[in-house]
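Long-time lurker, first post. I've been practising inverse folding by hand and with some scripts of my own, and I keep getting stuck on stretches where the structure tokens seem ambiguous. Below is the full token string for one chain I'm working on. Before anyone asks, I'm not after the true native sequence, just a reasonable design that respects the backbone. If someone could post their per-position residues I'd love to compare against what I wrote down in my notebook.
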């Protein structure tokens, strides 16, 4: 058992407890693995593509699966290259802001792209 358990990363509650391999917050119910929470510095967000490569602003990516686009009969085909991405805190997991030739400005999920 860990003597000094870390406070909850979501609500900063000091009364966390261990449950198997997880640390649990009794106030907000958040569960996490203590090694993962301590390795990342607060405020630093890491976005990874579909194969685990770390993405950064300005990278070029390739779409790995066909995507349907509302209002477009064709959609975005797998293999479409997207240049100069910007990482954002998007809604519903859409964390890439970009412009795609023929479609314009869009938001994509990092799980459907691969670093080029």
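-- Answer (accepted) --
I ran through it position by position. Result:
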């Amino acid at each position: 058992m860990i003597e000094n358990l870390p406070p909850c990363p979501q609500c900063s509650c000091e009364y966390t407890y261990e449950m198997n391999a997880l640390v649990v917050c009794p106030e907000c119910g958040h569960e996490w693995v203590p090694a993962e929470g301590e390795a990342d510095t607060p405020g630093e967000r890491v976005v990874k593509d579909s194969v685990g490569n770390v993405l950064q602003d300005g990278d070029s990516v390739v779409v790995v699966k066909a995507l349907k686009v509302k209002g477009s009969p064709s959609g975005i085909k797998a293999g479409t290259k997207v240049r100069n991405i910007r990482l954002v805190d998007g809604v519903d997991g859409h964390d890439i802001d970009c412009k795609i030739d023929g479609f314009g400005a869009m938001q994509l999920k990092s799980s459907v792209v691969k670093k080029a």
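A couple of notes from the structure itself: The longest helix spans residues 34-39. Residues 36-41 have pLDDT under 50 and may be disordered. Happy to go over any region you disagree with.
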